[in-house]
TrEMBL record, chain A:
It catalyses: sulfate + ATP + H(+) = adenosine 5'-phosphosulfate + diphosphate. This is Sulfate adenylyltransferase subunit 2. Keywords: ATP-binding, Nucleotide-binding, Nucleotidyltransferase, Transferase. NCBIfam families: CysD, PRK05253.1, PRK12563.1. The lineage of its organism: Bacteria, Pseudomonadati, Pseudomonadota, Alphaproteobacteria, Hyphomicrobiales. InterPro entries: PAPS_reduct_dom, Rossmann-like_a/b/a_fold, SO4_adenylTrfase_ssu, Sulfate_adenylyltrnsfr_sub2.
TrEMBL record, chain B:
The active site is at 528 (phosphoserine intermediate). Pathway: Sulfur metabolism; hydrogen sulfide biosynthesis; sulfite from sulfate: step 2/3. This is Adenylyl-sulfate kinase. PANTHER family: TRANSLATION FACTOR. Pfam families: APS_kinase, GTP-eEF1A_C, GTP_EFTU. The gene is cysC. It catalyses: adenosine 5'-phosphosulfate + ATP = 3'-phosphoadenylyl sulfate + ADP + H(+); sulfate + ATP + H(+) = adenosine 5'-phosphosulfate + diphosphate. PROSITE patterns: G_TR_1, G_TR_2. Sulfate-activating enzymes, NodP and NodQ, may be physically associated. Keywords: ATP-binding, GTP-binding, Kinase, Multifunctional enzyme, Nucleotide-binding, Nucleotidyltransferase, Phosphoprotein, Transferase. It comes from Pseudorhodoplanes sinuspersici. The keyword Transferase applies.
Length: 302, 621
């Protein structure tokens, strides 16, 4: 029996499996960054393949900002139970006490405190020496320069000029005591590859990716879903029900929806072949300024 | 349900290279834009970026799509490899946009290592440059067999055929000595889009395909059909049947259930009993697939092993010859130990001889003593245990290796194995009945190396001398090895360059090892400035047998003492490579014995060594 995958997807799958096993072998305490999105779902599936019939040999870490969509948290807990994951959930509780808020604090401060700092703290607290994530090079220009095995200096800082050349399929996994590694098995995948793989392998994903009428408010040209009563509407704003879905999931007040009728994975694949908008167009945190992702990454953002 | 249009597309991994400002990023940006691969929001952002950083006078500057780092946008150059993805209904592309600057040649090598096709750009007005020749040679060395010469900026030569024909002919002449199977050429204007996706109206004399049409039709084959099957073992795991499964991947060929295989390094044979990929068992596994394999027999197999068909076994050797491209700012030092990674196997390796360096422009060979960054050389390597490999020319996956600096972790060398020098199977270590333990026991002692390291004039020999006297009074058989003494004999051919210092310590370490084998307590005094070499000597000894003594004396004190006048000469510019002055010293991080000489007399230091040796059980209390 040969694989039902296209040769291209099969090659991407193998590359990712090889990388996952290398990370598991080369590091003392690797951890899987689990953000609940489609890339994370693919990563989890690849982990099962990589280590089958053994259990996934590392923990899954979710940085919970407390502002994720409710559906995401439900899905996370379901997957953790079904796959018997060692799930670690970390929140920057101090920032919450200090009132850091996705809208009122501004997305820059919010991302720094609830995502970057929370991630760094969690990695330090558990002494993880490698963090495996689902970032892809097609997401954003500074990501396109990122290595598959990417060294982070003291305090998880990223120096794009000090990156190691990555030759053939030979990964250099050596790190010094104050260094850690970020590992990106999906580096060479595109958004379309991810969805075609989800389709071929029948991988479960959060229902928010599929079109449905949902309560939204239009704000600054973006459709923001009202996931709970914490989203305060301005006097002139009004809630409406629109047929929407999400291409990228994050904190709900910062993740814009797209109008779409794609209600199945096959529909999504079809939609992506014709869309004229990039996946991250709905990510409000990326558009702060030119190079904002690179700056966030230098500080230790994923 | 599958999406048929995508399934039938194949993928081409290629790189774009050539000199700086030849228009690589612009060409790729335009290819992406004209194939509809740039989303509208990124296009809108490009308009914004072009106004801010653009070099095209307000027009869209496609290069800014690729140069994703701040410094790249500000300086208008590509610093690092960018990987980009675009496609047409016929084919999908992964392109590595590599920097043209000579100082970033290593990034071009990186891009070439993962590509099966290359697009080399030249400026029509400038013609072939040194960088064009350099990149062609690297492409050839890295095993790229098909290249496309894109002659850019044709508008600067009036879009005329003659200059294009002249460049193309020059190029063909030059590359005829290299190992390309197919070389094509297309005249283009990347900035305006001529012959990129649409045929140029300005160059009606050109009848060939556009760049995109060429990319869509050039044959793709990463693997030669004649490559023998290779399965790389990544890890060993318990399987659901309670047996041992070897998780790994196939880098070439195919394996099926029932195949007889050989484990390359051990030469043991067995039969494949099961192959599985979650969630099911399968009958065969082929190139580019990961799987877990179970064998019919219990054989000792570990990470780094390669399974091969019994009639097509890879080379197995602990000494071999290879081409190496140096990638690190710190030069390659023959004699120094590096980590070598080949397939899934990591071993320690030393360059035993640097046969020659290759002039990247002329291809000529020249005698060299070291390789600097971006240099290419041919050398002999020795590994601490045998490795399995194929010549790179026969198999890129099993012939490629990297060398990693053990101190900094930097990926320092890109290697391409050529041929085995000495088959490991021919070399059998002689085991004698009378061994180290027996010899030491006859003397009523434990054998060990006590290795004093520190700056010149730190007091190593002084303390060593006292320690040896104290040991001999206890009836212990010792011998002292001293840097200066060895340099008068065994090492008199060595100078004080970094490479020579590395070799000096290596030889001293080997002599010390022989003396330990003779059952002696060997006292060594060597500046031995580099951690890497001290670590190598340590690794050549059994655990607990190598005692590092850091004679820690501040530079100022050493300089004030200066019994041999070495520091004075260095300060006067009359001596070079003096450790502490113009040559680095790397202090031990965790020495077994740390002597802070300013806190006591030489005798007190010697007493501390004796006490520590007793504490460690090397000598009786």
């Amino acid at each position: 029996m040969t694989s039902k995958l296209s040769r291209h997807l099969s090659n991407l799958e193998t590359e990712a499996i090889v990388i996952l096993r290398e990370a598991a072998m080369a590091f003392e305490r690797p951890v899987l960054m689990y953000s609940i999105g489609k890339d994370s779902s693919v990563l989890l599936h690849l982990c099962r393949k990589a280590f089958h019939p053994a259990k996934i040999p590392f923990a899954a870490l979710h940085i919970d900002t407390t502002w994720k969509f409710r559906d995401m948290i439900t899905f996370r807990d379901r997957m953790a139970a079904e796959l018997d994951l060692n799930l670690i959930v970390h929140t920057n509780k101090k920032a919450i006490e200090d009132g850091v808020h996705p809208i009122k604090s501004g997305s820059a401060i919010y991302t720094r405190e609830m995502k970057t700092r929370a991630l760094r703290d969690a990695l330090d607290m558990h002494r993880f020496d490698a963090a495996i994530g689902g970032a892809r090079r097609d997401e954003e220009p500074s990501r396109s320069k990122e290595r598959i095995f990417s060294v982070r200096g003291p305090n998880h800082s990223w120096d794009p000029r000090r990156q190691r050349p990555e030759l053939w399929h030979l990964y250099n996994t050596q790190i010094a005591t104050d260094e850690t590694m970020r590992v990106f098995p999906l580096s060479n995948w595109t958004e379309l590859d991810v969805w075609e793989y989800i389709l071929a392998e029948d991988i479960p994903v959060v229902p928010l990716y599929f079109a449905k009428e949902r309560p939204v408010v239009e704000r600054g040209g973006s459709l923001i879903m009202i996931d709970d009563d914490r989203l305060e509407l301005e006097p002139e704003e009004k809630q409406q029900n629109v047929l929407i879905r999400f291409r990228s999931l994050g904190c709900y007040p910062l993740s814009a929806a797209v109008q779409s009728s794609a209600a199945s994975v096959a529909d999504i694949v079809e939609e992506l072949r014709t869309t004229r908008m990039s996946e991250r167009a709905g990510r409000l945190i990326d558009v702060d300024e030119t190079s904002s992702m690179e700056r966030k990454k230098r500080e230790g953002y994923f | 349900m599958h999406a048929p249009t995508h399934r039938e597309r194949d993928h081409l991994r290629f790189l774009a290279c050539g000199a700086v400002d030849d228009g690589k990023s612009t060409l790729i940006g335009r290819l992406m834009a004209e194939t509809g691969s740039i989303p509208d929001d990124q296009l809108a952002n490009l308009v914004h970026l072009s106004k801010k950083f653009g070099t095209t006078g307000g027009n869209l500057d496609y290069a800014l799509l690729l140069d994703g780092l701040e410094a790249e946008r500000e300086q208008g150059i590509t610093i690092d490899v960018a990987y980009r993805y675009f496609g047409t209904p016929k084919r999908a592309f992964i392109v590595a946009d590599t920097p043209g600057h000579e100082q970033y040649t290593r990034n071009m090598v990186t891009g070439a290592s993962n590509a099966e096709f290359a697009m080399l750009l030249v400026d029509a007005k400038a013609g072939l440059t040194k960088q064009t020749l350099r990149h062609s040679r690297i492409l050839s060395l890295l095993g790229i067999r098909r290249i496309l010469l894109a002659v850019n900026k044709m508008d600067l030569v009036d879009c005329a055929e003659a200059p294009f024909a002249a460049i193309t002919e020059d190029f063909r002449k030059f590359v005829s000595q290299l190992s390309f199977d197919q070389v094509d050429a297309i005249p283009i204007v990347a900035r305006d889009g001529d012959n990129i996706v649409h045929p140029s109206k300005r160059m009606p004399w050109y009848k060939g395909p556009t760049v995109l049409a060429h990319l869509e039709t050039v044959p793709v084959s990463t693997h030669q059909r004649e490559e023998a099957a290779r399965f790389h073992v990544q890890s060993v795991m318990r399987t659901d049947t309670g047996g041992r499964g070897y998780a790994g991947y196939v880098s070439s060929g195919a394996f099926k259930k029932g195949d007889q295989i050989i484990v390359a390094r051990s030469g043991r044979k067995s039969t494949i009993s099961r192959i599985y990929v979650y969630p099911s068992e399968i009958d065969s596994v082929e190139t580019g697939q990961a799987a877990t394999i179970e064998l019919a027999d219990q054989v000792d197999i570990g990470r780094g092993d390669i399974f091969a068909p019994v009639d097509a076994v890879p080379e197995v050797a602990d000494q071999f010859a290879a081409h190496v491209v140096w990638l690190n700012d710190n030069p390659m030092l023959p004699g120094r130990t590096y980590s070598l990674r080949i397939g899934t196997h990591t071993v320690a390796a030393t360059i035993t001889a640097l046969k020659y360096g290759t002039d990247i422009e002329t291809g000529e060979h020249a005698a060299v003593s070291t390789l600097a960054i971006n240099d290419i050389g041919f050398c002999n390597l020795a590994t601490t245990e045998p490795i399995a490999f194929d010549p790179y020319a026969k198999n890129r996956e099993t012939g490629a290796f990297i060398l990693v600096d053990r101190q900094t972790g930097a990926t320092s060398g890109a290697g391409m194995a050529d041929f085995p020098l000495y088959r490991a199977s021919n070399l059998v270590k002689q085991n004698y009945e009378i061994d180290k333990g027996y010899r030491a026991k006859m003397k009523g002692q434990r054998a060990a190396v006590v290795w004093f390291t520190g700056l010149p004039s730190a007091g190593k020999s002084t303390v060593l001398n006292l320690v040896e006297q104290k040991l001999s009074r206890r009836g212990i058989h010792t011998y002292a090895l001293d840097g200066d003494n060895l340099r008068l004999g065994l090492n008199r051919d060595l100078g004080f360059t970094e490479a020579d210092r590395v070799e000096n310590v290596r030889r001293a370490g080997e002599v010390a090892r022989l003396m330990v084998d003779a059952g002696l307590v060997v006292l060594c005094a060597f500046v031995s400035p580099f951690r890497n070499e001290r670590r190598s000597v340590r690794e050549r000894h059994d655990a607990g047998e190598f005692i590092e003594v850091f004679v820690d004396t501040p530079l100022a004190t050493c300089e004030a003492r200066d019994p041999k006048g070495l520091y004075a000469k260095a300060r006067a510019g009359k001596a070079f490579h003096v450790t502490g002055i113009d040559s680095p010293y790397e202090p031990p991080e965790h020495p077994e014995i740390h002597l802070r000489t300013e806190t006591g007399t030489p005798d007190a230091m010697a007493e501390q060594v004796i006490a520590d040796l007793a504490r460690m059980g090397i000598i009786a209390r």
